[in-house]
Amino acid sequence: MGTDPKHLEITLETQVESVNLAEEMCIRVAEAAGFGEDDCYKIGMSVREGVINAFHYGNQERPEKKIHLAVDLTGDKMIIHVLDEGTGFTLASVPDPLAEENLLSTSGRGIFLMRAFMDEFDVVAGRTGGAEIVMAKKLPLQDNPGTNGQGTSPHQGA
Amino acid sequence: MPLRATHRDAGQATVVDLSGKITLGEGSALLRKTVRGLLDEKRIHIVLNLGDVDYIDSSGIGELVSAYTTAKGRGGELKLLHLTKKVHDLLQLTKLYTVFDVYTEESAALNSFQ
């Protein structure tokens, strides 16, 4: 474990441009933290999907609401929080996009992609009353066998 | 890179050459507009050439599904051509690879309409 945790926080407008901004910011943090190209892609995609979720489902695309993004670099992982100002949701309520009846749905794959691309993923009740997505990826060069799976270990949000 | 879309006639089919990103916002909207425009012109046999599409998110995936089902609903067909590795892997992950007709050769994609 390192001894120099880093924290970055930004409040984003509920607009499409925030999706790209959040993704680019987190990719830069991931690159600086030593993640390789493939992991940076997965982290960037997960952040994108988290912010899309906040933009569309959480904040209902209402411009007066904000999206709160926080990134923590601890000694062994990069933790990302995406908090919206909606009414919250539970993972149990999210349909399985791989189910036969949902395969041709035009939406509903964002949560699935985040779970697939990150080592840890959870949704908790945020301080705003909205949903807080908390996801993490283990830093490279750590002795963490089997971290490429679809881990869903709960992680308590900030 | 923003999405660019051009299309060309290829016998009874139309090939749409796409390059850039198919993501939430303009990328997805351009794909929708392009496919709907072709279908409105009764060009219902469509090949989407994704060879230069290097990035796609859940919104883009949804738009591909929408294009596929809309074409079918109009009595046509929509096929995918030249998937990049990222798009290929995403379609496999989401189990859509088995839903779409995917081709690595344009001639094979075009012949599949006959």
Plain-language structure description:
The complex is a heterodimer of chains A (158) and B (114). By secondary structure, chain A is of the alpha+beta class. Chain A has one domain: Histidine kinase-like ATPase, C-terminal domain (Heat Shock Protein 90), CATH 3.30.565. In chain A, 30% of the residues lie in helices and 23% in strands. Chain A has helices spanning 16-33, 37-58, 110-117; strands at 6-13, 66-73, 77-83, 120-125, 131-138. In chain A, a hairpin with a 5-residue loop joins strand 4 (120-125) and strand 5 (131-138). Chain A is globular, with a radius of gyration of 15 Å. Chain A starts with 5 loop residues before the first strand and ends in a 20-residue tail after the last strand. Chain B is of the alpha/beta class and 114 residues long. Chain B has a single domain, classed as Transcription Regulator spoIIAA (2-Layer Sandwich). Helix content of chain B is 40%, strand content 32%. Chain B is built from four helices and five strands, in the order E-E-H-E-H-E-H-E-H. In chain B, strands 1-2-3-4-5 form a five-stranded mixed beta sheet. Chain B is globular. The model of chain B has no long low-confidence stretch (mean pLDDT 97). The chains are: A alpha+beta (158), B alpha/beta (114).
Succession of helices and strands of chain B: EEHEHEHEH
CATH superfamily heading of chain B: STAS domain
The CATH topology annotation of chain B reads as Transcription Regulator spoIIAA
Write down how many β-strands of chain A occur, each being a DSSP E stretch of 2 or more residues: 5
The helicity of chain B comes to: 40-55%
- Which range does the strand content of chain A fall in? 15-25%
Biggest sheet overview of chain B: 5 strands, mixed
Which CATH class of chain A? Alpha Beta
CATH architecture of chain B: 2-Layer Sandwich
List the uncertain runs of chain A: 144-158
SS content category of chain A = alpha+beta
Report the C-alpha radius of gyration of chain B, rounded. Answer: 13 Å
CATH architecture descriptor name of chain A? 2-Layer Sandwich
Total of helices of chain B:
4
CATH class label of chain B: Alpha Beta
Instruction: Report the oligomer.
Output: heterodimer
Distance between the amino and carboxyl termini of chain A: 20 Å
CATH topology of chain A: Heat Shock Protein 90
Name the overall outline of chain A. Answer: globular
